[in-house]
Amino acid sequence: MPEATRTVVMTGATGGIGLEAAREVLRRSPETHLVVLAREASAARALPRLREISPHVSTVPADLAGKASVGTAAARVEDLLDAGELPPLRGIVCNAGVHLSDALHTSEDGHELTFAVNVLATHLLLRRLHPHLRASSRIVVTVSDAHFGDLRHTGGIMPPPLWQDPESLFRPGAYPRSHKVRSGGRRAYATSKLGAIHLVHEWARRLPGGVDVLAYDPSLVTGTGLAREMGGSAEFAMKWLVPVLEATPLVDTPPAAGRKLADVVLGHTNAPTGSYIHRTKAMRSSAESYDADREQALWEWLEQQT
User: What's the predicted TM-score (pTM) here?
Assistant: First the structure.
C-alpha cells in the first residue's frame, strides 16, 4: 500500500451510494487518505468495510444537524492538516442528506432540519475547510433531480420546489400544509436540493482557480433507504416499482451510483466548475436553478450563520 499523499473529507460515507463511493475512491486511489465525518455509531459500522480496502481511513465525529458539531468536526480536521498528521487536502465530498416526512422537524439550532442538513451544514463545512484545499482540488455536493419537480424527472412523486427568502426556508413550517408528506416533507427536500445547486453556483464564483465545485445528481437509485422517510406512494414506488427498472439504464444500484460518484470525486468525469452532473455527464439543471440574485441572498444568509 503506497503512502497517502492526499486527503479527501467526506460526509454521507457510512451507507448507500456514499459508502460505495468511498470504497471505490480508496480502491482506485490508494494514495488517498479518507476522512469520514459522521456520527460515531455510523462511523464504527462503516469503518471495517472501508479498512478492508485501505488503512488510510480515519473518522471524525460530526452531527450535521448542529452548527456546533459541524464546527468542532471542521476544527479537528484543520488541526490534523496543520499538524501534518494528514496529507494535503485535495477534496471535500458533501454527500450526506435527509428526506423527512414533513417540514416541521428542527435542528439543534431551531432551523428546519432538511435545510439545516442539506444546505447549511454543507456551507459551514466548506467555509471552514476551503482555505486548506490545494490546487487542483474538487468539491462535490450531492444533489437530486427532485429539484426539477416535474413529471419527466420525478414521475410525479415529487412536488415542484417552492423557493422563498432564506429566512423563511430555514424556518420549520415554511410551506402550506408543512405537516403533510408531499406538500411538507417532499417539497422541503426538493427545495433544499434546489438550494444546494444555488450554493454550488455561488461557491463556483468565489473559489480560486484550481479548486472546482460540482453538483452531482445520482438520479434514481434503489436500495438506499431514503424512501423510508418519504412515506406514501413514494415509499411504495421505491420499494416495488423502481427495482423493476434496475435492468434498464434508467435506474442504478448503490454500487453503480457509487462508482459514478467516485468518478466525479477523482476527476474522471470532466466538467467545469459549477457544473451539474447527471449521473455521468454535465448538463443543465432546471431553469429555476440559475438565479444569481437568489444565490447571493442565500449566501448572505448562510454567512450570517457562521
Answer: 0.92
